[in-house]
Sequence to fold (223 residues):
Amino acid sequence: MFFDPMYFLFVGPFFLLGMYAQWKVKSTFRKMSEEPARMTGFQAARLMLDSAGLQSVQIEPIGGTLSDHYDPSAKVLRLSPEVYGAQSMAAVGVACHEAGHAMQDAERYAPLVIRNAAVPAASFGSNAAMLMFIGGMLTGFTPLLWIGIIAFAAIVFFQVINLPVEFDASARAKRQLVAQGIITDYESQYVSKVLNAAALTYVAGTLQAVATLAYLIFSANRR
Fold:
């Protein structure tokens, strides 16, 4: 399939968009890391969580670059070194975005609940979908081919439902950063640059997944 020109016609533009999005988020984070803030990422996230009554949610450092995430099973927010102890607009923006996910979890935010429920199916799809699809194509066993497509559709569903989850977490972060006095209204433009760049990566990933699913269906029907 990877030598099929139609694959690049379907997926190529969104693959390039994804590469641009990755470059954009890294370059924007680097620039906004040079803009000083009043607090570190840890302090900003702690303030946001405490203001929401989430004192039980712990914040831990984690290795890696931009590896920040909220773990709903452990109720722990994990921040990378360039966010946890850094006192910059980039750091407080990313930290409070992740704190926004903790708030969603506490409120049982519907898209987050649906996304979490879709994780097992999406994980299965990511491991097996392409193998089943290619196996079905090579052997001519049509049911296996379509099972692979359905499995990949679970990945697409996960990507699509993840968009409102990420957008809402960023919106919560922007509101709370100003409301808690971590940044001013004027400084919110710096945080928005980081969060908007990150949002582009989610959009690009979703579009690439949708385009790939369209290609798989096209290929199955063409065969």
Residues 93 and 188 are 9 Å apart (CA to CA). The helical segments are 5-32, 41-51, 81-84, 89-107, 110-139, 142-179, 188-222. The beta strands are 58-61, 69-71, 76-79.
